[in-house]
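#struct-help
A.M.: can someone run this one for me? Single chain, 280 residues.
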Amino acid sequence: MLLGHELRQYREQRGITREDAGNRIRASASKISRMELGRVGFKLRDIEDLLKMYGVADRKVVRQFLEVARESNKPGWWKEYGDSLHKWFVRYVGFEEAADHIRIYESQFVPGLLQTEEYAREIITGGVETDMVTEQRIEARLRRQQRLDRDKDMRMWVILDEAAVRRPIGGKSRGREIMRGQIRRLIEFCRDYDNITLQIVPFVVGAHAAEAGSFTLLRYSDFELADLLYLEQLTDGEIVDRRSVVEAYTKAMTRLSVAAATPDETLEMLEEMLADLERD
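D.P.: on it. C-alpha cells below:
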C-alpha cells in the first residue's frame, strides 16, 4: 500500500492517467488502481517501466523502489499463523508492522502489545485448556511484541482506562499473580522504554471522549499517507481511512491525553496498584 501510494504520487505529478500507465505495462487502468491501493503484488519489471514513464531517472531511487517491491512481495512473519488468526487480524498486523507511530486507546484490557505471556494466555484461552490453534495465537501475540525491543524508532502512545488496568484476569487462584506480573510489566514500559508513552484515565474523570470504545491509530511518517484507524469488534476488525472518521478519533485521542493522568502520575498509580496487590 505504501509503495503503491508513492507510485500514484509520481504518476499524478506527471499528469499521466491510469489508462496510459496500464498500457505501458500491458495491463488495464483497474490493474494500476489495484497496484496503487496495495491490493496486488508487484512485478519488478512493471515497477521499472512505470518509474521510467514517470520520469524517475535517479538509479538510487529506482533501486530503493525495487528493494521495497521485493520485500512487499515476501510474506510477513504473521502469515505463518494464517490458519490460526482471523484473516482481518492478519491484515491489520501487516499495517501495524509498517507503522512508525502507533496510538492506542483501550477501555477493557491491557493492549496485546503490552501483555505478559500469562495475561495474554488468560485473555486468549479464557482459562480453559488450550489446543494448537490457541497456542499459535499466543505465540503470534508474543512475536508482535518483539518489535518493541527491536525497533526503537517506532513510537507508541497508549492511553488506558483505569478499568483496563484494574480488571482482574485469571480468576481467584492465579489472578493476583497474573496481575502483579502485568502491572510490573507496565511499570517497566514507563521507566525503561523511551519510545513508549503510557497514560491512564482515572475513574474520577467520569464520562470522557472515547465512550464508544477502544481504537488504534496508525501513522506512516516516511510516506504522504493519511493516518489509518483500526476498530475491532467481537467477530471482525475494520481498517478505516476515511479522513473525517480518522480525524474524529484523532481529536478524541488528544482529548483523552488531556483528561488522563500524566506519564509520571500514571507511573505512580501503577506503583500504588502493585503495592496493593503485593500486600494481600
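A.M.: thanks! The chain has two domains: 2-73, 77-279.
D.P.: also worth noting: The mean pLDDT is 90.
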